[in-house]
Amino acid sequence: MKTNRRKLSDNKEQNDKRRIRKRIIIRSLLLVAFLLAINTFAWFTYISRAGVTLNASVVNWDVTFLEETNVIREIVINVKDMKPGMLPVERKVSIKNGGEVDAKITYVLKTVTLLGQDIKLDKSTDEIHQSLANDYPFKLVLNLDKTIVKPFDSGNFDISINWDYEADEFYKLNDFYTYDAGVYYYTLNNGTYQIDNTVTEQNFKEKVSQGLYLEKDDADSFWGYACGQYENSTGKPCLKLEFELNATQVE
Question: pTM of the entire structure?
Answer without folding.
Answer: 0.71
